[in-house]
Amino acid sequence: MIFAVYFRQPEIPFQGFDSDFLSILIEFVATRSLIVDLVYLSAIGSFSTLSGGPAGGRAWLVGKKEPTLTRIADLLLREDILLDLEVSGKSQLIEEIGRHMERAHAMPHASVAPSLSHREQIGSTGLGQGVAIPHARVKDLDRILVAYARLRSPIPFDAPDGKPVTDILVLLVPKQATEEHLRILAQATQMLSDRRFREQLHLCQLPLQVKQLFDTWPENTP
Predict the structure, then answer these.
(1) 131 and 158 share one domain
(2) Do 208 and 144 have their domain in common?
């Protein structure tokens, strides 16, 4: 599966991207005000445009054949909403996520934590504005898992704007996931780039309130 990618700003062509690198591209675009022309060379259709950035508030794939999008709200369970999580840094956060996934979903900590750590070594998943979206493909996972954590105290995350993060949306996907993984990641970026959504999220005091906010986005963010 190969992608041809062309940046309009600046006009530098990038060719030969496979699906493993495309998630990094989405994050790059999502943290900057860039427009990308992307030709998806596969049998299921041709995606034409990817745009993003906090300034534009957009980060998704659109094209001639737009797939049915799984909503993050449908994947996020109330038991996977962790409020006032106390961690001292990124490493401890990843360990806590691993332990939670083992308790709540019987996913081995030894599979989850190393996968997330490896992804962070490739590049920080911090988006800026206090937000991070740690994500990884996990061996033996048979469905996408989503968790939201709000930290009691901000932690450094090597985000593009240098700000520490408090809002964490975790995405774990099966090893074989490709297009769906990218679409969910793009949706998460769009959601958390929405300033109004983040403001309302910070007002939530209970997991149920957080879940209801995710359920009604974007209708609840005029």
Answers:
(1) yes
(2) yes
Question: CB within 8 A of 145, min separation 6: which ones?
Answer: 75, 80, 101, 105, 107, 170, 171, 172, 173
What is the domain range of residue 50?
2-63
Residue 28 has pLDDT above 80, yes or no: no
According to DSSP H, which parts of 42-152 are helical? 72-75, 90-105, 109-122
Alpha carbons 66 and 176: distance in angstroms, whole number = 20
Active-site amino acid positions = 135
Are 7 and 97 found together in one domain?
no
| Cα 101 to Cα 108: distance, rounded to the nearest angstrom | 7
**What per-residue confidence (pLDDT) applies to 182?**
84
Checking if the pLDDT of 81 tops 50, the result is yes
pLDDT in tens, 111-134: 999 999 999 999 999 999 999 999
Structure tokens at 93: 């956060």
Q: Name the pTM for this structure.
A: 0.72
CA 6, 50, 1, 108 torsion: positive or negative?
Answer: positive
With cut-offs at 50, 70 and 90, classify the pLDDT of residue 180.
confident
Clarify whether residues 77 and 48 are in a common domain: no
In this structure, are 132 and 194 located in the same domain? yes
121 and 141 in a single domain? The answer is yes
For residue 170, give the amino acid letter: V
Tokens of 166: 């408090």
Number of C-beta neighbours around residue 61 at 10 A: 22
157 vs 165: CA distance, rounded Å: 6
